[in-house]
Amino acid sequence: MYLHEIFLQNTGPISECHVKSSFDETGNPQPIVIVGPNGSGKSIFLSYIVDALTEFARVSFYDYTSNFRTLNQHAIKSGEQFSLSLLRFETTDGELFYCEKMGALDPSNYPLDFKSRFDSVWNCLDGENGKKVSIDKDIANSEMEENVHAFFPARRYENPDWLYNTSLEMGLSSSITRSNRQLDKPLQVETCASENIS
Question: Is residue 189 part of a domain?
């Protein structure tokens, strides 16, 4: 599963950020380097990618109930009326989509080709604030079991406001396999040398 497109608008300090991933002739992704001063939105950018993956995990694991990012009106960029986040991933078996909307926005302000790429989650823009994902359950199961790995480097001094802290409380367990449809793992691992000694 590869991230093909991310669009963030009016979230935290980010006015608008639209990144389409590049791939080489063999289909492998080119690196994306995120650079900016403190407080410019680098962690927020990454938090949406992780939140999309955790929302996809919710489809795959029946015991998964935590949120990585909380819905929060204060996350809307100061002076703006809404925030919008759209992500599109591709696998060999299909596409996966994520949408988060806060506040009131006018969907007619976006070009038709843009809306068509996010068609399966575009209706999250109507009505209430919230998140929506579009993912086939079989694809979710396959990707979460075989292809998703996350690494978080050394811990920050404080948790960012978008992090849902109860998602960090679960402990590691090496006795349960992922194939039983239980996540049974924390979302964030700070040290794991002993669990990965082999």
Answer: no
The two three-digit tokens of residue 191, written as one number: 């040290």
* CA distances in angstroms from 44 to 70, 104, 172, listed in the order given: 12, 21, 26
List the strands of the sheet with 95-103, edge to edge.
14-20, 2-11, 82-90, 95-103, 130-134
pTM of the shown model: 0.74
Radius of gyration of the chain (CA): 17
pLDDT 10s digits, 34-55: 998 888 999 899 999 989 988 8
C-alpha 40/C-alpha 12 separation (Å) is: 8
Express the helix, strand and coil content of the chain in percent, nearest 5 each. Answer: 25, 25, 50
Q: State the residue range of the domain holding 164.
A: 2-180
Task: Indicate which CATH number applies to the domain containing 106.
Answer: 3.40.50
pLDDT, tens digit (0-9, with 9 covering 90-100), for 1-16: 899 999 999 999 999 9
What's the rounded Cα separation, in Å, for the pair 26 and 12? Answer: 36
Q: Tell me whether residue 191 is in a domain.
A: no
Residues 164, 170 contacting (CB under 8 angstroms): no
Residue whose entry in the numeric block shows the structure tokens 């955790």: 54
